[in-house]
Specification:
- This protein is mainly beta and 482 residues long.
- The protein has one domain: Neuraminidase.
- It is built from one helix and 34 strands.
- It has a four-stranded antiparallel sheet with strand order 3-33-32-31, with no helix packed on it. Strands 4-5-6-7 form a four-stranded antiparallel sheet, with no helix packed on it.
- Strand 8 and strand 9 form a beta hairpin.
- The N terminus is likely disordered.
């Protein structure tokens, strides 16, 4: 099942230039870790062979966590864990309440078709997700990936990727994002029958679950849009949606031939926000690899709950004057002021990447380093992200070429960046795989998946890692700040 950041499954190997003048790690401030040990989310009350995370989300308080896991030899499913009650339940279950008999066609399909991409409402009552299974609701006959919403209070499940009359989509739907009260769901779909005049291009839609109305958000200037959609998020009140698209006809003068980040606001339409500090469109990073030419723009979109702040990742240089490192960084744009800042930086600022790299025989330098998958607290103060950059924190002893990734949280108010992917002893963890999660609305908790041994041993027999919830310190403190 595809998650909300589709490009993360690919190896991030980009051509880079050697950059002089990077600050030595020894001169950077040391951040003091005062947080508790991470809590295991994906332990369940039944036996299983693996718990493999490809996505997780958390409510505003950090109590309820939705995550993706596979149990035994089954498909990926969506689970909801109450961290206070230590209770888990699967929410994408067969609508009859029973599981299909072993060996039947339904049993085979249940093993082949999975669910993923959970999005949790602020209060935790509603969870939106994508599933390919035709057995979650009665009369699911479109044989497409659909968006569903689970009501935690009533234990009910509804398909929402339908048109205003309830007709099922005739194309795959994905990337669901649900508003704070669960009324609005934004998602992308290739369906051509959700609204009048829609095509089978991947578009962004907004569904009002109260009225049943659905609206096309990514409409082109001339009514029809050309291009795709990759990742989106809705604000808590449902009035704002941020999304990434390579379409060139959403706003005037889009000529960079690259994927950009856009924001739709009710009553104001669509604007492009992946701009430089001077208001110019980004210049995509161009490189050649495996015989192909690429133009990297912006992706991996996050929106604060209040709808005022957008975060995204980009390989492009020059969004701020100091960024010329030829690597993927995370940026935040304040929609009210129009200002943009790079947040994938060590505490106090500077560049997180090494100033020298080994080059291949073809003369081109390669790196696996990238900062990506941002998530924002409700007010946009805290930004979580994943990075393989070795210069974000002194304690991080990962591979200098960035083959080990970690989870970080940046406090935009104090300009402190803290590594939060740690062992039970508080030391930086090392993992072959990190699966991005989200930061809670209150900015006090972060979810993520990792195959690192955070407790010295795996919490169960899993070989593929687990989902964790990390409670954050009440303040991010530097070693010399007292």
């Amino acid at each position: 099942m595809e998650d909300r950041h589709p490009w993360l499954g690919a190896v991030l190997a980009f051509g880079v230039l050697v950059l002089p003048g990077c600050e030595e790690p020894s001169l950077r401030p040391e951040v003091v870790w005062e947080g508790p040990a991470a809590e295991v989310v994906s332990i369940k009350e039944w036996d299983h062979r693996s718990s493999y995370n490809t996505g997780s989300d958390v409510d505003r308080s950090g109590r309820l966590v939705a995550f993706v896991a596979s149990v035994k030899d089954g498909p990926e499913g969506v689970y909801l864990r109450d961290m206070e009650r230590s209770v888990s339940r699967r929410i994408d279950v067969w609508y009859t309440g029973d599981q299909p008999a072993p060996g039947t066609r339904a049993d085979q399909q249940m093993h082949e078709l999975g669910s993923g991409s959970p999005s949790v409402s602020a209060a935790g009552r509603h969870i939106a997700f994508v599933s390919n299974s035709p057995y979650l609701v009665p009369n699911d006959t479109n044989r497409k990936g659909d968006v569903f919403v689970y009501d935690h209070a009533h234990g009910s499940l509804r398909m929402v990727s339908t048109n205003g009359e309830g007709l099922q989509a005739n194309g795959d739907s994905r990337y669901p994002s649900i508003s704070g009260d669960g009324r609005f769901v934004a998602f992308a779909s290739r369906a051509g029958n959700l609204v009048e005049g829609s095509t089978h291009a991947m578009d962004v839609y907004l569904k009002d679950r109260r009225t049943g109305r659905i609206a096309l958000i990514s409409r082109g200037l001339e009514g029809r849009r050309r291009g795709g959609i990759e990742s989106l998020q809705i604000s808590d009140d449902g009035s704002t949606i941020a999304f990434a698209s390579d379409a060139s006809d959403l706003v005037p003068d889009d000529t960079n031939r690259a994927q950009d980040v856009f924001v739709w606001e009710r009553g104001h339409g669509v604007e492009r926000v992946s701009l430089t500090s001077e208001g110019d469109q980004l210049v995509p990073f161009e490189y050649e690899e495996s015989g192909g030419s690429f133009r990297d723009g912006a992706d991996s979109v996050a929106l604060s709950g209040d709808g005022d702040v957008v975060a995204f990742a980009t390989h492009a240089n020059g969004l701020v004057p100091e960024d010329q490192n030829d690597n993927v960084d995370v940026y935040v744009r304040d929609l009210a002021s129009g200002t943009i800042e790079r947040v994938s930086e060590p505490s106090g600022g500077g560049d997180a990447y090494p100033d020298s790299r080994e080059c291949g025989n073809n003369g081109q330098c390669f790196t696996f380093i990238a900062s990506h998958s941002p998530s924002l607290s409700f007010d946009g103060r805290y930004v979580s992200f994943v990075s393989g950059a070795p210069g974000l924190e002194i304690e991080d002893r990962d591979d200098p070429q960035g083959t080990d990734e970690d989870v970080f949280v940046h406090d935009r108010e104090t300009d402190v960046t803290m590594l939060v992917h740690r062992t039970a002893r508080g030391l930086p963890a090392r993992a072959a795989n990190i699966y991005p999660g989200t930061i809670s609305g209150d900015g006090r908790s972060v979810t993520f998946g990792t195959d690192a041994l955070l407790f010295g041993k795996r919490p169960t027999a899993s070989e593929n890692g687990h989902v964790y919830l990390q409670r954050l310190p009440r303040r991010f403190r530097l070693a010399d700040s007292g």
